[in-house]
């Protein structure tokens, strides 16, 4: 039987029998070798039914985030294997990993959608979400981080912080999520610990707390030294097939390499001093009990201090290893349980109003052909049980949940209940979408609203439930769009159903119908995003659709400040509507308002307008922002000041909005318009031999080169150019269509820069 067939057969056994016994953690040796155990009996793999269901303090909800090809999925695969939940080590290149189960993921070797898995490690329950690294699927990272308590940031040790690393790090910071850093691929010839640490400091503005020193470098990387315990962890792998379960733990002594001893000693001293600077309690302990010898501080006290520093987000623990070579993953699992927070250590003010009642957030929806919609929920309080009715506050609807499952990528196990702090998968919720707040009943929501009102001691604005709804998931605006057509009109209804299902799964996908042509427009986050959607429609729904050419989502703005007035006088039936509007528009810095448009009123007008009239004025202004006067693109970067609104008695709000919209259109035309192209910062990594041709191509695309740096002294990196790849030289440039020089000037500049290199 071939290796691939054997792996497939073993996974079938695991899925069918839902076995209950298995390996306990990792195996290591202290003074003697433990025998390896390569049996294919059913009791080798743990069942999801045997996942520990501990106290909330033993739960860890974490995400794996990184740049493309840093090793997220490979690291996740090793975690599942060492914890005993898979029989064989999956490989991204072979297309047999647990979390990359979509056909498109296995064919392309990339993660497209986030996948949740649940497993246990040393009496802790770990709910882990593997996220994509491609910028087109950044929403998957956003909605995962929204419900997680901690994150593991994976880095390619030869590249340090890369473009998408910055994006996912900013997302984690936005949600105030403590992180642990894992420097992966330490076995690469160009792996550089100091370079990676420095890039974390400089690019992420973070405070790395180094906990391990690598033993060996490149192909000779064999393990790490734990700076807390002064122990050496060595993986003596005899062949490429060695699974890395057995490793040696040995205390450092004078027989070890003197250079290594010196490096470790200096690094441990620096670690103790750094933690003392960040944690007052630890500093006081050192000065009180260990002032004569800081190095004598117990490792458990140092670990507790590092945990406090991590939870306070004052520093980020840094570990290293090589997931593909099966080295360093078990200490990473230990670090997850030791340093990242439990759900009860993350403060959610809103949740306390529900007390012991159910409060959960729907953060992801999948469609299963047999089960229907599958909704992922993060439970913040209370207990979730199948065959019960739940209330959706956002939709103001009550639904019945038929089944409750533990998520394990595309394999799930039914369970009788799920407690607070966990991530659950539900069946039967047909109306719930991403971002909805789920509670046990209307009465529970009303009780929580009363508690919230009593706590604040003031009347609530915006309705009874305005402040008891969990904040949802921020969905970015699409930047690419194209037309999509079915093979025949007979398939139009099927295509609409497919697009509705896909939109429910992926809120970053937008679908609209062009009012002039009647064509269906597909709007997405990038070329790859739309390509994947097209392929899924073909594979999953059996519809051979045709995509039109991709187009860019342009915007419009104005050049000058203009004041204007307009009067609408219209008689409808026996009722006369008269309204006069005076307003001013002016251009504002796009970056200062985030691309949005502002609406303000004069102080005098602010106090005079009734709420209904003010809302009508704002609606009129917003409607004019949707379609600019030049080419009909949405408008941005404009500040509108409403100076005066005069309304005759009997004039309807609709007429007020119509007059404001007409006045705005007049002002925008008078102010002079300009079309804006998307602006982005781009980092390109390329081999030195291709530098000149790449610079020339960038010049033709109106790119402004801001900086050119050499990443490493050694040569021979990949020259495949994507948005970001791995290589020698790093280019930071800005594609700025309306500020850049003309192409001839740019060409001259870039050729000179290429000549200097």
Automatic annotation (TrEMBL):
Coiled coil: none annotated. GTP binds at residues 66-73, 130-134, 184-187. It comes from the Eukaryota. GO terms for molecular function: GTP binding; GTPase activity. InterPro entries: EFG2, EFG_II, EFG_III, EFG_III/V, EFG_V, EFG_V-like, EFTu-like_2, G_TR_CS. It catalyses: GTP + H2O = GDP + phosphate + H(+). It holds the Pfam family EFG_III. GO terms for biological process: mitochondrial translation; ribosome disassembly. Keywords: GTP-binding, Mitochondrion, Nucleotide-binding, Protein biosynthesis. GO terms for cellular component: mitochondrial matrix. Mitochondrial GTPase that mediates the disassembly of ribosomes from messenger RNA at the termination of mitochondrial protein biosynthesis. Acts in collaboration with MRRF. GTP hydrolysis follows the ribosome disassembly and probably occurs on the ribosome large subunit. Not involved in the GTP-dependent ribosomal translocation step during translation elongation. Belongs to the TRAFAC class translation factor GTPase superfamily. Classic translation factor GTPase family. EF-G/EF-2 subfamily. This is Ribosome-releasing factor 2, mitochondrial.
């Amino acid at each position: 039987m071939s290796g691939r067939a054997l792996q497939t057969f073993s996974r079938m056994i695991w899925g069918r029998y839902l076995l209950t016994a298995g390996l306990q953690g990792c195996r290591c040796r202290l003074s003697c070798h433990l025998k390896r155990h390569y049996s294919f009996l059913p009791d080798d793999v743990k069942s999801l039914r045997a996942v520990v269901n501990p106290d909330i303090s033993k739960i860890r909800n974490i995400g794996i985030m990184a740049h493309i090809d840093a090793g997220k999925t490979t690291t996740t695969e090793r975690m599942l294997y060492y914890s005993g939940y898979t029989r064989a080590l999956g490989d991204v290149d072979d297309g047999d990993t647990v979390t990359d189960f979509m056909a498109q993921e296995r064919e392309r070797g990339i993660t497209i959608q986030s996948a949740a898995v649940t497993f246990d490690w040393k009496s802790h329950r770990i709910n882990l979400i593997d996220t994509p690294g491609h910028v087109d699927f950044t929403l998957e990272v956003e909605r995962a981080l929204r419900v997680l308590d901690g994150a593991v940031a994976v880095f390619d040790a030869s590249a340090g912080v890369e473009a998408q690393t910055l994006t996912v790090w900013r997302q984690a910071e936005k949600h105030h999520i403590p992180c642990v850093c894992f420097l992966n691929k330490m076995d690469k010839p160009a792996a550089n610990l100091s370079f990676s640490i420095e890039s974390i400091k400089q690019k992420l503005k973070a405070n790395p707390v180094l906990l391990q020193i690598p033993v060996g470098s490149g192909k000779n990387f064999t393990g790490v030294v734990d700076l807390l315990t002064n122990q050496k962890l060595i993986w003596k792998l005899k062949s490429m097939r060695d699974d890395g379960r057995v490793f040696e733990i040995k205390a450092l002594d004078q027989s070890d390499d003197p250079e290594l001893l010196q490096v470790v000693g200096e690094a441990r001293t620096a670690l103790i001093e750094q933690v003392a600077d960040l944690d007052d309690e630890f500093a006081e302990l050192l000065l009180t009990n260990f002032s004569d010898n800081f190095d004598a501080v117990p490792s458990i006290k140092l670990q507790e201090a590092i945990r406090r520093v991590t939870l306070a987000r004052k520093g980020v623990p840094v570990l290293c290893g090589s997931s593909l070579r099966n080295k360093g993953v078990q200490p990473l699992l230990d670090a997850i349980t030791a340093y990242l927070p439990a759900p009860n250590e993350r403060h959610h003010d809103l949740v306390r109003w529900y007390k012991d009642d159910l409060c959960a957030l729907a953060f992801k929806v999948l469609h299963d052909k047999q089960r229907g919609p599958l909704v992922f929920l993060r439970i913040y309080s209370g207990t979730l049980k199948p065959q019960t009715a739940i209330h959706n506050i956002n939709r103001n609807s009550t639904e019945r949940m038929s089944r409750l499952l533990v998520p394990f990528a595309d394999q799930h196990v039914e369970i009788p209940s799920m407690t607070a702090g966990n991530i659950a998968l539900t069946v039967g919720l047909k109306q719930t979408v991403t971002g909805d707040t789920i509670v046990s009943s209307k009465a529970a929501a009303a009780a929580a609203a009363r508690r919230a009102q009593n706590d604040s001691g003031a009347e609530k604005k915006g309705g009874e439930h305005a402040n008891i709804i969990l904040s949802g998931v921020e969905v970015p605006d699409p930047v690419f769009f194209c037309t999509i057509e079915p093979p025949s009109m007979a398939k139009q209804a099927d295509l609409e159903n497919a697009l509705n299902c896909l939109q429910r799964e992926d809120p970053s996908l937008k679908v609209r119908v062009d009012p002039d042509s009647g064509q269906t427009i597909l709007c997405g986050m990038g070329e790859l995003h739309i390509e994947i959607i097209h392929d899924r429609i073909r594979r999953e729904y059996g519809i051979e659709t045709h995509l039109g050419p991709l187009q860019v989502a342009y915007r419009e703005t104005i050049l000058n400040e203009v004041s204007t007035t307009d009067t609408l006088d219209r008689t409808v039936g026996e009722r006369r509507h008269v309204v006069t509007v005076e307003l001013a528009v002016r251009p504002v810095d796009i970056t200062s308002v985030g691309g949005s448009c502002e609406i303000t009123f004069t102080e005098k007008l602010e106090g005079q307008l009734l709420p209904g009239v003010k809302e009508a004025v704002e609606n009129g202004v917003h409607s004019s922002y949707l379609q600019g006067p030049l080419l009909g693109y949405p408008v941005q970067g404009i500040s509108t000041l409403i100076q005066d609104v005069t309304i005759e008695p009997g004039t309807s709000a609709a007429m007020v909005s119509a007059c404001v919209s007409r006045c705005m259109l007049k002002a925008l035309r008078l102010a002079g318009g300009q079309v804006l192209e998307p602006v982005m910062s781009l980092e390109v990594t390329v081999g030195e031999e291709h530098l000149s041709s790449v610079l020339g191509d960038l010049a033709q695309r109106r790119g402004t080169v801001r900086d050119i740096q050499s990443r490493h002294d050694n040569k021979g990196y990949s020259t495949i150019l994507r948005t970001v790849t791995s290589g020698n030289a790093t280019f930071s440039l800005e594609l700025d269509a309306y500020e850049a020089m003309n192409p001839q000037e740019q060409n001259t500049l870039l050729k000179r820069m290429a000549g200097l290199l």
